[in-house]
Prior knowledge:
globular
Amino acid sequence: MQPGERNVAMRAVGHLKPIHLTMALILLVGAAMAIGNKEFLSLYNVNTIFTFGSILLIAALGQMFAILIGGIDLSVGGIISLISVLFIFLVHNVGYWAYPICVATGLAIGYANGVILTRVKIPSFIATLGTGGIVTSLAYLVSPRPVSAPPVEYGFFDIVNGSFLGISNVFIFGLATFVLLLAFLRVTRTGRNIYYVGSNIKMAWMSGTDIVNTRNVAFTLCGVCAAIVGVIISSVRYGGDPVVGTSYVLNSIAAVVVGGTALTGGVGGVVNVLFGTLFLSLLDNGMNVAGVDQYFQQALLGAMVIFGVAVTFDRTKTPIIK
């Protein structure tokens, strides 16, 4: 290839949107896994990918709001873990009321993250790192070890574990969350403000945007989504675990950035997160089916985060370092 042709090719790749690169990766990984294992595209395995991918999707959609405003939420794993064990104990004591109580708990923690960010005025990385440690400790205080629900209470989990017209309720929850948050971002003023704040917080403030309320809403939604994930995981497992949310911190961030939502804020959205989640779900399932070592899977996931940031990072918002 001649230098001129190489430059043209590089410019063509540079003009591709990150989400298009993610789509290409989905096709490549899907094709490779299907060729390598005949069971990869079986009805059972496809259902597994979409069901468990829906759980990650909800967590990633929540993380997306924190990232869209130029922040990040490291308390997601702690919230999921706390809700996981809290839900099992609440089901035993108050039955179906455990569902709204757990969601309200996630809402309160998410709102607290927003208040710390906007009122105490410390970076979201530090704020959520601190609250994440607090809620993780609370999870251990509720139950220092995994706890299981007795079989007599299994009926309370049918809301999550059931199906409608042959479609898993977990998948329906994921789809409903996707549609609702898509509408929220595109139709409501607060949803549009989230993009404004993430793109340029100073210009958003000068135009009269309520910066404090917008940030509070973003982190509140993140907390709600994390709580929903905690409830779903406990229902699927018929039990809670004080460390079950640990992996969702990196996984949720990876799903967001690999899909093309920029860590610098203001760029991306729920459709990007959907494709990022689908890619990671395919990759995770394919590696498990192929028997890839768990430690190597984490290394590959870290590489995907670096890749996602590399293609979406807005370098105009950072000083040039020579």
